[in-house]
Amino acid sequence: MKPPMGVFQIKNLNTNKVLIDSSIDMVFKWNRHKMELKFGTHRNKKLQKAKMFFELGIKYYPKSPNVYNSMADYYISQKDNKKALEYATKAYEISSNDYFAKRIKTLKN
């Protein structure tokens, strides 16, 4: 069975900038992008910096629900709902805000 091929985009939800890429093996290419971001080696330095800034926000403002919510946004943009749910849950634990409760419910579905 041949792997799926096509064109895809990774979108920064804060700036609406997109990275457009294509592949004859979409699963491999998508996993490569996620791995490069995880290890800090992604070729799109702006996308890499976005994740770094969210991580720094969490480090310096660990009691702010907004930094966890921003990291949830990042993981949603990476199609990683499991990690997004983790960060949205942390934001809710800190603030008990209904917005985060609704977001958690949406991510679970």
TrEMBL record:
TPR repeats: 65-98
Keywords from the UniProt entry: TPR repeat
Cited CDD domains: GIY-YIG_LuxR_like (cd10451)
One matching Pfam family: TPR_8
Protein name: Tetratricopeptide repeat-containing protein
Phylogenetic placement of the source organism: Bacteria, Pseudomonadati, Bacteroidota, Flavobacteriia, Flavobacteriales
